[in-house]
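Moderator note: this is an archived Q&A kept for reference. The question asked for a predicted structure of one protein chain; the sequence and the answer are reproduced below.
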Amino acid sequence: MNNKVNWKMTFSCIGTYAAIAGLLLNGVLTAEAREWLKEKSLLKSSPIPTTNSLPATETPLSKLVAQGFESGSNNIGVLRNTRVFSDRVTSDNQEKYYSFSLDQPSNISLYLDNVTSDVSMRLYVDTNGNGVIDSGESLDSSTAYSSSTGVIGRALGADNYIVVVRFRGRNSNYNLQLVNNTTSAVNVGILKGSRTFTGSMNRNNRVKYYRFRLNNDSNVNLSLDRVTSQVSMRLHVDTNGNGVIDSGESVDSATAYSSSSSGVIRRRLGADNYFVVIGQNRGNTNYRLTMFSP
């Protein structure tokens, strides 16, 4: 079968602007193939971008994938609670893209693990809303190793975001977990009297948020116990009232080490909104959180 027949078969199956652009940018199409496409009006109204026609701040591949043109991109939509993806990066498939949006300020956690070789992830914000990664839109990055998890934790505003998972020298599988801690938080309401909550810390539940309010100044007691592995507890105040934990809003912390060593926080707190964050420090474990205000 000759090359011209191959073009026809290819574009009969994947004859989208994205597919044509991807092949052209990678130098796959010959001059003869371009002429064939023009005859079929596939190049008539929308000129295919060349490498030189794109701004220097964008790579052609990143531009195409961020716009959703490539099969490797994953459009999550509005991120609520937890989404988990398992995939693979290789020398032939070096980047995987995940786009999501937030409709309210949120504390977001990204976890990258289950790798056999170094794999990196980077978080971008689509500041100008053009659907692509531009210069100056990088927010944070982390790398997963075979012995440790890559973690990004940020307070993010309502906007559109892109996570890029990248190959770093050797082929590897990976798991990517995106968590909206704000939408999955337990809303305790006004803390009056004693409230008890139980839960578990594991690979699919690494952090848990509890939100409560005090209407008056009060002596608050927080107790974390019944653990079989180390678990942390952190108390934050929502000083600016934006519904998320920002830098500088930490009040106190404690750690529970075993069933006989509880983590305790005792503070006199003013009328305000607060967060208690329970976090996994080591192995899997159950826990009990008791909150008290007279």
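Archived answer notes: Helices lie at 3-14, 17-25, 31-39, 60-66.
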